[in-house]
Amino acid sequence: MRRTDELIDRLVCDAHPVRPLASPLCRMMFWTAVSLAFAALVVGIASPRPDIAEKLAEPRFLIEQGMALLTAVGAAFASFALVVPGLDSRLAMVALLPGMAWIGTLGAGCVTDFLRAGSAALGLTPDPGCILYIAIIGSLPSIVGVVMLRRGLTAHPRLTIFLLALAAAAIGNFGLRFFHVRDAGMMVLVWQFGSVLLLSALGALAGPRLLARTVAAA
Length: 218
Prior knowledge:
The chain has 218 residues and is an all-alpha fold. The protein has one domain. Helix content is 72%, strand content 0%. It is built from 8 helices and no strands. It has helices at residues 2-14, 24-46, 52-56, 59-81, 93-117, 129-149, 157-176, 185-210. The longest helix has 26 residues, at 185-210. It is globular, with a radius of gyration of 21 Å.
């Protein structure tokens, strides 16, 4: 009993004010603002594509970009939610729904191109610059996101970082298409969306190292 009282006294004496985490929604909004600002900066430096006005009037371009942005926002929200102990890990589904819709719009674009131009529309040429540009635009969102995530505690480090990497890469792809003119349906699906998936998978592998403060998964 005495030891218990001593422990309580020590805890009281050593206690420091703790600033509670903001809600996942608030952190997602802050992260999105920083990420879009950085993406806009990179687009400005790279110079917007010459046909940007035409693209902004094209429903297909707007839908694909909207789905990419929704995927980023949903994945970021789910990632920040997973570092709040007690919240359901099924919140990851918040990211999967717009992600599946994004794949669907890109697939529909491939079909449209095929109907318009035939098999020539399905041709692929090497475009390794996609992954580089997506990684550059997604670099700051990734760093900011990891710093924010480390303030919480997660039982699912790989899933948490996978979602953050998905969010950052989706932002990277969103920004890329404002200055990268090679955006035929198959090129976007394979090189750009493929780069998003690759970067997300690499992020998942680094999850336990980046989020050292974790608890055992149930």
